[in-house]
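sorry for the late reply, my laptop died twice this morning and i had to redo everyting from scratch. anyway the thing you sent over, i finally got around to it. pasting the sequence first so we're on the same page, its 408 residues, then the predicted structure underneath. double check i copied it right bc i was rushing
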Amino acid sequence: MQRATTETNRTPYKGHWFITGLGVGQLVSWGTFFYAFPLIAEPMGRELSLTKPEVYAAASIGLAFAGIASYPVGAAIDRGNGRAIMAIGSAIGGLLFIAWSQVNSLWTFYPLLAGMGIVQAMTLYEPAFAVVARRFREDARGAITTLTLWGGFASTVFVPLTQLLIDNFGWRHALIALGVINLGLCVTLYAVTIDPKSDPPPLHPPGADAAEALSGREVVHWAFGQPVFWGVLIAFSLYLGIHSGLIFHLYPLLLERGYDTATTVAALAIIGPAQVAGRVAIWLFASKATIRTVGMVTVLLFPVGIAVLFLDSLGFLAPALFAVIYGAANGIFTIVRGTAIPEMLTREAYGAINGAIAGPAFVLRALAPVAVAFLWSSGGSYSTVLIGAIIGTAFVAMAFWFAALARR
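ok and here's the structure:
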C-alpha cells in the first residue's frame, strides 16, 4: 500500500456551488462560534460580576469538549455523514446561543459552553476539510484553499457585526441574533450543499478489493509510527493553543495597551482580509510549491508578527502590522493544516487522522484561554503572555521543520 503520496500543486477550485455554500457556512460558523466570544465575554462578565478567569474557563471547557468530539466526528465524516453532522451541529449551536442569552450564573453557563465546544468540532474547519478531502481527493488542496478564502472573512464580518449588536441591543440580544443566523442560514447551507450521494467510493490500496481496504482506525495506527505525523501533531497543537489564547484575549489585550474600542475593533477586522491576502498570494505566487515548503516559510512569520505588538510607539500601526503579518501567516497556515496530511502522509482516512491530530490540539486550545487569564490575573499585564507566545511560536517552527525534513 502506498502511504507517501506524490504532492500535487493545484490552484483553488473554482465554479462549484458546493465550495461556495460550504464557504459561506464557514464564514458564519467561525464568525459566530469562535470570534464572537471575546466580545460577548466582556459585557457579560461585567453584568454578572464574573472574574476574567471564570469567564474564560468556559471557553476552555468548550474547547476541551471539542477535542473529545474531534475523532468520532472525523471518523463519521469518513463514513459519509458530513451533511448530517455539520447541519445538526449548526442547529444545536443556534439553540445554544439563544439559551446562552438567558444565562444568569456560572453553573448554567459552563454546560452551555461545553455543548458549544462539541458544536465547534462539528462545524469548523476540521470537519469542513474532511468533507472536502472526501469529495475532491487529489484536488483537495485547491478546494481547501478556495474554502479558506471564504472563512478568512469571518472576523472581518462578525467582529464589527457582533460589536454593533452589543452596542445597540446588548449582549443578550446579540446572542439571540447570532443564534437565528445559524438556524436560518448555516443549517440550510450545510444541508443543501453537502450531498453524500455525490461522494466518490472509498479509497482502497492499489490492487485490493473493497473487502481488503484498511479501516480508519488501522490507518491512524499506521500513522502513529511515522515521524511526520508527530512533527505535524506537535506543530499544529502548539500553534492552535497559542492562537486560541491570543485571539480570545486580543480584544482586552489591545484595550490594555491603550487603544480605544473603535481602534481595537478596526485592528481585529484587518485580520480577516490579511488571511485572505495571504491565501491569494500563495495561490498566485506559490501554487507550484510543495505544502511543506509553504509551511516552513510561514511558521517563521508568527513570532515576528507577535513581536510587533511591543512597538507601542508606532500607535495604531503596531496592531495593524500585527494583524497583517499574523493574519496572513494564519491564513496560509490554515491551508497547510488542511493539506499537510494528504500531501505529506496519506490520503486515506483523512477525517480520522485529522481528528486524531485535532484531539491534542483542542486540549491545548482549551487550556490556553483560561491559562492566559490566570497569567493576566497574577501579573496584571499581558506583556508576559506576548513573550510566551513568541517563544511558543518558535517551537511551532521547529516542530514543523522537523516534520517537513523527516519525510525526506
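The domain at 17-205+215-407 is CATH 1.20.1250.20 (Growth Hormone; Chain: A;).
thats about all i looked at so far, will dig more tmrw
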